[in-house]
Hints:
The complex is a heterodimer.
Chain A: E1 9-18, E2 21-31, E3 36-40, H1 47-54, E4 62-71, E5 74-75, H2 81-87, E6 92-95, H3 99-102, H4 109-117, H5 121-134, H6 140-143, H7 153-165, E7 171-175, H8 183-200, E8 203-208, H9 211-217, E9 220-225, E10 228-234, H10 235-240, H11 245-252, H12 293-297, E11 303-306, E12 309-311
Parallel strand pairs in A: 3-8, 3-9, 6-7, 7-8
Antiparallel strand pairs in A: 1-2, 1-4, 4-5, 9-10, 10-12, 11-12
Chain B: E1 10-19, E2 27-37, E3 42-46, H1 53-60, E4 68-73, E5 76-77, H2 83-92, E6 93-96, H3 100-103, H4 110-120, H5 126-139, H6 156-168, E7 174-178, H7 186-202, E8 206-211, H8 214-220, E9 223-228, E10 231-237, H9 238-243, H10 248-256, H11 262-267, H12 298-302, E11 308-310, E12 313-315
Parallel strand pairs in B: 3-8, 3-9, 6-7, 7-8
Antiparallel strand pairs in B: 1-2, 1-4, 4-5, 9-10, 10-12, 11-12
Helix pairs in contact in B: 4-5, 4-6, 5-6, 6-7
Amino acid sequence: MSATMAAALEVSGLTLAIGGVNVVDGVAFSVAPGEVMALVGESGCGKSITALALMQLLPGPVRRTAGRILLEGEDVTSLPERRMRQLRGRRISMIFQEPQAALDPLSPVGAQVSEASGLAGGEAREAVHRMLTEVGIADPLRRIDQYPFELSGGMCQRVMIASALIGRPAVLVADEPTTALDVTIQAQILDLLRRLAAERGTAIVLITHDMGVVADIAERVAVMYAGRIAEIGSTTAVFARPRHPYTALLLAAIPRLADVPKSRLAVIEGSVPQPAEYGPGCRFAGRCPFADAHCAAEPPPLRETEEGHSVACWHTERLA
Amino acid sequence: MTSELSVPALAVESLVVHFPARHGPPVRAVDGVSFSVAERETLGLVGESGCGKSTVANAVVGLVRPTRGEVRVAGTPIAGATTHTLRAIRAKAQMVFQDLATSLNPRMTVGAAIGEPLLVRGLARGRALEARVAALLSEVGLRPEHASRYPHQFSGGQRQRIVIARALALRPTLLVCDEPVSALDVSVRAQILNLFVELQQSHAMACLFVSHDLAVVRHVCDRVAVMYLGHLVELAPRDALYATPRHPYTRALLAAAPEPDPELQRAKPRVPLQGEIPSPAAPPPGCVFHTRCPMAVARCREEVPIWRPLGETMVACHRAEESPA
């Protein structure tokens, strides 16, 4: 599903290195306008650093050594910071896990949303009012002058979404946007993101560790493991017919409301390798029940197994 | 269900915990909660942040002093207990916390940490202590030679195993777990949940399992209690609670928990609960849930619903009988 022309965001061969180690290795995906694409994986899989790379906000020690990031067709990796600064908030925005920490505690929330709008005076206030209403903040005229500490976590997340979207960006990068929230508030925020993607045509890149959140909101999903995409495809196909052993085991390791209680959950032996431990081959080989000498020696390329569903595994046919 | 004849491993009666606030009224973290946990039984306590579930757990092991009400561990009341009695109770009731980073002393070897409760109480030392520590490490799926290492040399899942081994050292009759798997990745969480189910069978102990995750609680618990704003709203045997939830809040929680199955999840009726949890310093009158309840009527705003049986379930809702099946 690489509708190159239509993609709001297209990432190819993205490789990020710390020291000499590729902590993100050849990551590629695209997101269409109005689509929600999830990057899912456990801690250390490289999903958050990929998100920062999309924003061109990589922390000091991380270097992009290869790959392109096309934002509405324009490669942003070669842009000077001065130019990138103009794009943030207008063509690509980001929201974070801890809304209360991401907002400025000393500034009223209305001013923070307004700052991102690029408007001033009465016009700005009106735009902020409209935006706060759109993200479902009740009584926006009162909230506009309040400070983050006066708002709940869910409300702060709505404010952050408002300030991310007021500049009408084509792409919203959402890094674990509901992880710090309770389930009933999470459901509200996921509904909001779904509605905004549909109504505004915003392409959403959702970074999450939660397979339930992916199942709820994402049309497509990329499962990441140790810096690489293990499997990518439509959410329905990946969940119904996982073709990578990591995806299959991960899905079987989650307790579900339909399971037999106290039954044994699938286990992935060991733990995620540290970047220093990455071998030359498949990075899952050390924990994979199918792994052989070939897996340890040579990294499997991402190959399409069916239309729009690709898997990086030498033994994918064993899961068919 | 708790047998009337035997003494429950844990009995909590009309527990109230209020925290004084510098300004304004006290925070009513727990406001009249009663339940018991039978020997060998695991009771799940679920609810969202601020509902008071962790305060209940802390009160059970004596880390928080109840404002009113009683907590009895294997029949012994802990409120007003002497230091001596409290020490004895703490050997019987052990706790496992969510935050692994602060649960282990970084400068103490794992063996010393696990052996400490035994050493402090004079139950074992020297070779016997080493042997006990080695046995505990094997029980939680680690190797005896791990005893000489430090916490930083272990992964998150292994650290949780170490914490569990230490909690088991004194052979407690009650294990209190506060979000024991919430900080863990999915693959590691499955390992710890499997270990937990094994330990339930091998150790004849009762457990109070506090969590916000309904699927995890269903997986390990025999009965489940749901808390909202300092109150229990429903308590039922596991299958009854998940199959026929009687309280509208339980239903809302079940509806809001996203299932890792796109077809199931997208077919779910979408009735997200509106609004937010009120402040426990100023809980609403009547039923505390009425401000967000889709079924609330005038009576709910005025009259506190009593905690009453309905079939196998205990529930606090005026309209529990009208619940859609």
